[in-house]
Amino acid sequence: MRVSVPATSANLGPGFDCLGLALNLKNQVIIKPSKFHSVSLKGEGSNNPVLKDNNMFVSIFNDFYNNLTQKRRFFRFEFFNEIPLSRGLGSSSAVIVSAIASAYAIEGIKLEKEKILNLALAYENHPDNITPAVMGGFNVATVQENEVKFINKTMPRGLKAVVVIPNRSISTQLSRKALPFKYSKEDAVFNLSYSSLLTAAFMSENWDMLKHASQDMFHQKYRMKLMPELFEVQKIALQKGALMSTLSGSGSTMLNICSNEDSVALAEKLKEKFPHFRVLCLDFDNFGVKVEL
Ligand SMILES: Nc1ncnc2c1ncn2[C@@H]1O[C@H](COP(=O)(O)OP(=O)(O)O)[C@@H](O)[C@H]1O
Ligand SMILES: N[C@@H](CCOP(=O)(O)O)C(=O)O
């Protein structure tokens, strides 16, 4: 059985903990019944011993599998990871979502995507990464009485994401602690109005509005200060044709959305200016988690 899951970019500026979209950068796992437990890793995280010995995917998979079947069986897990860890591209959501989907699928149980999403909430209580990881596309999501309420929209082929990935990681948990405990009414109204405008821009495909609507007062400035070069990435991206440029999730990646036509030149310019960062030109993913038996 093969399961794949896309990277995600959350917040999109003002939509802290509620907006997110999926990118065509994927983690895949092949799971086979085996006499012994074994793990092989290729790609991102393959030199990290924790991922081999105490893998979050394996522990979530086992929790669900054991609960579902009451059986003790062994598996071989072959991971092919494209999503960098702790860079704000939803690596932890990808693991959570794909582990849950895998545990059911290997027993031949077909689980609705909404069910996977609600089970994933037990591991990540903000729905902005897990929703696009499950559903693909652009998503607006909130949690009501332990259920994710969301609206999903397909991303068009005419746009690309140019992501700039620094070589320094930022843990989501730690970076959430760096945010203010309280916000003023002005900041709350600011983010409410910009997040609403940004959502309307995505839903109506008014791409010229993205630049105006993607401003934020809740988290970016606090987080980007930890890596001041990110302000320069944002400035250059906007000058060189990005429709919007925001911190991806809790960072350290910057997400730049642009037209297909502008994407190569934008990526080249960012590579030239920031040779020590990784720059990828990606399509959007519109499918989300995928199980192939
Ligand atoms: N491919 C993976 N396999 C196992 N665990 C992973 C993998 N990717 C991420 N993780 C776990 O998720 C953590 C990163 O989560 P987090 O700090 O939320 O960053 P991100 O922004 O990438 O989601 C890692 O430290 C690791 O524990
Ligand atoms: N809304 C969350 C999103 C975290 O995304 P990640 O990809 O960095 O895990 C936040 O801003 O903390």
TrEMBL record:
InterPro entries linked: GHMP_kinase_C_dom (IPR013750), GHMP_kinase_C_sf (IPR036554), GHMP_kinase_N_dom (IPR006204), GHMP_knse_ATP-bd_CS (IPR006203), Homoserine_kinase (IPR000870), Ribosomal_Su5_D2-typ_SF (IPR020568), Ribsml_uS5_D2-typ_fold_subgr (IPR014721)
Localization in the cell: Cytoplasm
Enzyme's top EC category: transferase
Domain GHMP kinase N-terminal: 69-137
Keywords: Amino-acid biosynthesis, ATP-binding, Cytoplasm, Kinase, Nucleotide-binding, Threonine biosynthesis, Transferase
Domain GHMP kinase C-terminal as annotated: residue spans: 201-275
Predominant place of localization: cytoplasm
GO molecular function, one term: ATP binding
The enzyme's E.C. designation: 2.7.1.39
Keyword Chaperone annotated: no
Reaction equations catalysed: L-homoserine + ATP = O-phospho-L-homoserine + ADP + H(+)
A biological process from GO: threonine biosynthetic process
Pathway it works in: Amino-acid biosynthesis; L-threonine biosynthesis; L-threonine from L-aspartate: step 4/5
Binding site for ATP: 84-94
Role played: Catalyzes the ATP-dependent phosphorylation of L-homoserine to L-homoserine phosphate.
Protein family according to the UniProt entry: Belongs to the GHMP kinase family. Homoserine kinase subfamily.
Protein name: Homoserine kinase
Gene: thrB
